[in-house]
Design brief:
The complex is a heterodimer of chains A (111) and B (115). Chain A is 0% helix and 56% strand. Chain A has 111 residues and is mostly beta strands. In chain A, the strands form 2 sheets. In chain A, strands 2, 4, 5, 9, 10 and 11 form a 6-stranded mixed sheet that branches. In chain A, strands 1-3-8-7-6 form a 5-stranded antiparallel sheet, with no helix packed on it. In chain A, strand 7 and strand 8 form a beta hairpin. The N and C termini of chain A lie far apart (41 Å). In chain B, a hairpin with a 2-residue loop joins strand 7 and strand 8. Chain B has 115 residues and is mainly beta. Chain B is globular and about 40 Å long. Chain B contains no helices and 11 strands. Chain B is 0% helix and 56% strand. Classes of the chains: A mainly beta (111), B mainly beta (115).
């Protein structure tokens, strides 16, 4: 079965700094989802990547999909306290019903 | 009301109690899901319903019993739970139809504590 490994597991950054979170799959990535979860709450959909080399941005968050590396990265520019939370990646491929998730990366942004 | 809603948001129950979690989606989706989220573990898929039919049951103990009366509502009936069942229970919905499914949208979750 497919497994997703996220790194780092947790991250503390100073407000205004840039950061990157990685999600590496044990199998070929066909579809990759990024979600954000505030502590103890539901998941909020951020973006979905389907094609190798695809890059999407939403406000100050950019995600890329590297098919060859079977990896996706999430980059936050000029982090703010509102970016704090748990970021989870989820993978979809034919045969997966439904998504397989990573364990998440816990992000804290300090002033 | 839009999106996916869950009630209650918090629940404390004893091991002999019977309770139910409710999920409602207002997105017109045809698939609904129950997930369990425990500390330091990936999201665990519990049940999947497509078009009101259960299509997956990932070896979930029988003390968890799902019910999907229609495509908009999903219940998780709980009875004789164990303390290790304490977790955040998340409901999600999506539209399925092709080889790859559409985005899943999640509810806010029910934080369950079993004493």
């Amino acid at each position: 079965s497919q497994e997703l490994e996220q790194s780092p597991q947790s991250l503390i950054v100073q407000e205004g700094k840039n950061l990157t979170i990685n999600c590496t799959s044990s199998k070929t990535l066909y579809g990759l989802y990024w979600y954000k979860q505030k502590y103890g709450e539901g998941l909020i959909f951020l973006m979905m990547l389907q094609k190798g080399g695809e890059e999407k941005s939403h406000e100050k968050i950019t995600a890329k999909l590297d098919e060859k590396k079977q990896q996706s990265s999430l980059h936050i520019t000029a982090s703010q306290p509102s970016h704090a939370g748990i970021y989870l990646c989820g993978a979809d491929n034919p045969g997966n019903t439904p998504l397989v998730f990573g364990k998440g990366t816990r992000l804290s942004v300090i002033a | 009301e839009t999106g996916v809603t869950q009630t209650p948001r918090h629940l404390v129950m004893g091991m002999t109690n019977k309770k139910s979690l409710k999920c409602e989606q207002h997105l017109g989706h045809n698939a609904m899901y129950w997930y369990k989220q425990s500390a330091k573990k990936p999201l665990e898929l519990m049940f999947v319903y497509n078009f009101k039919e259960q299509t997956e049951n990932n070896s979930v103990p029988s003390r968890f019993s799902p019910e999907c009366p229609n495509s908009s509502h999903l219940f998780l009936h709980l009875h004789t739970l164990q303390p290790e069942d304490s977790a955040l229970y998340l409901c999600a919905s999506s539209q399925v139809g092709g080889s790859l499914q559409e985005t899943q949208y999640f509810g806010p979750g029910t934080r369950l504590l079993v004493l």
